[in-house]
């Protein structure tokens, strides 16, 4: 049995911490390239655990004063079906707020696959 203060125990504790934090991470970054336009860039994964964060960010941007929101999914590692539900909800809010919402899947194969299955229905896919 290892002591909690030995180097090996500390390494195991750090490895556990990293493993516990790594799955389900979603990083969101907002930029404003022009007046009235917000670009939300998502990195990491969009799944059942992280979708609420994505919705919160999109909702904030769509309630703002801008006229266009672009969601960049190109650097995602995973995009699950829950993410599609967020996009559908965001599109409804965008229509209500008279704001344009564009989805850019880029080279993210999982996002592109799900968006292709929907055949672009009610979503503005770039």
Textual characterization of the structure:
The protein is of the alpha/beta class. Helix content is 42%, strand content 28%. The chain has helices spanning 7-21, 51-63, 81-96, 109-117; strands at 26-31, 37-46, 68-79, 100-104, 124-125. Strands 1-2-3-4-5 form a 5-stranded mixed beta sheet. Helix 2 runs parallel beside helix 3 (81-96). The longest helix has 16 residues, at 81-96. The chain starts with 6 loop residues before the first helix and ends with a strand.
Helix content: 40-55%
Helix/strand structural class: alpha/beta
Indicate the mean pLDDT: 83
Radius of gyration: 18 Å
Task: Give the tags.
alpha/beta; globular; 126 residues; 4 helices; 5 strands
Compile the SSE list and pairings:
Elements: H1 7-21, E1 26-31, E2 37-46, H2 51-63, E3 68-79, H3 81-96, E4 100-104, H4 109-117, E5 124-125
Parallel strand pairs: 2-3, 3-4, 4-5
Antiparallel strand pairs: 1-2
Helix pairs in contact: 2-3
């Amino acid at each position: 049995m290892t002591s909690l203060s030995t180097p090996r125990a500390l390494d195991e504790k750090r490895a556990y911490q990293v493993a516990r934090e790594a799955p389900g991470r979603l990083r969101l970054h907002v930029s404003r390239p022009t007046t009235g336009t917000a670009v939300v860039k998502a990195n990491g994964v969009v799944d059942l655990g992280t979708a609420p964060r994505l919705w919160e960010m999109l909702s904030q941007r769509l309630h703002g004063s801008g006229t266009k929101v672009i969601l960049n999914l190109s650097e995602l590692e995973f995009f699950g079906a829950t993410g599609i539900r967020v996009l559908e909800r965001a599109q409804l809010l965008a229509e209500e707020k008279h704001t344009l919402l564009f989805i850019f899947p880029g080279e993210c194969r999982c996002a592109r696959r799900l968006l292709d299955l929907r055949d672009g229905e009610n979503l503005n896919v770039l």
